[in-house]
Amino acid sequence: MKHEWRKKEKDLYLPKEKPQLLTVPKQQFPMLEGKGDPNKAEFAERVGVLYSVAYAIRMMPKWGTAPEGYFEYTVYPLEGIWDLTEKGRKESTLNKDEFVYTIMIRQPEFVSDEIVELAMERVRKKNPHPYLEEVAFRSMEDGLSLQMLHVGPYDEEPKTFQIMDDFAEENHLRRTDLTHREIYLSDVRKVEPAKLKTVLRYKVEKIGE
Fold first, then answer.
1. Are strands 99-105 and 136-151 parallel, antiparallel or unpaired?
2. By CB atoms within 10 Å of each CB, which of 97, 131, 139, 172 scores lowest?
3. What is the pLDDT, as a whole number, of residue 88?
4. Is the predicted pLDDT of residue 1 greater than 90, yes or no?
5. Domains recognised in the chain with CATH numbers
6. SS3 label, residue 48
7. Strand partners, 163
8. Cα–Cα distances in Å, from 161 out to 12, 33, 137, 155?
9. What Pfam families is this protein classified in (predicted)?
């Protein structure tokens, strides 16, 4: 039976339009780091490279290499961890050229370093790209986190973050760092900005009441 994250992992990927506290388990991702405005071509190229690796892993049985423990699954959504450079943090208005980010696509537990390398080798032969050599395969464990579904343009995310921040203050929670995670549930090429769905999430810790 195919593993579909939209059905099996709703708590992680399909929150409501209100703040939700959860514990995010250890997960593994091929990831790429970058800097600059995500509306520019470089960001889209990095996303394309990540998806080419993710689909090469999922399609392995089709080309005769079924990893041990393999099961049918839906490719997970693109995620990104976002921050600003020191210069960007000091500017009075948001300068998207000062964004620093790490984009990633989660992988099932059966995926290993060796499997990722096999997939990347296949991509190198079929669709070579310089960014492919920058892909790293790592595990992350966010732990206690606050998340909420944002519906609308990316530029309106501050409104949703304000709701999350108010919830955190009311519930004795404190952000543990300045980065945040975004999980993209919509294809920006096919969905109008007003209907884009994005999970916004940041790590928190409980503080004394």
1. unpaired
2. 139
3. 93
4. no
5. 5-204 (3.20.80.10)
6. helix
7. none
8. 18, 23, 29, 12
9. GyrI-like
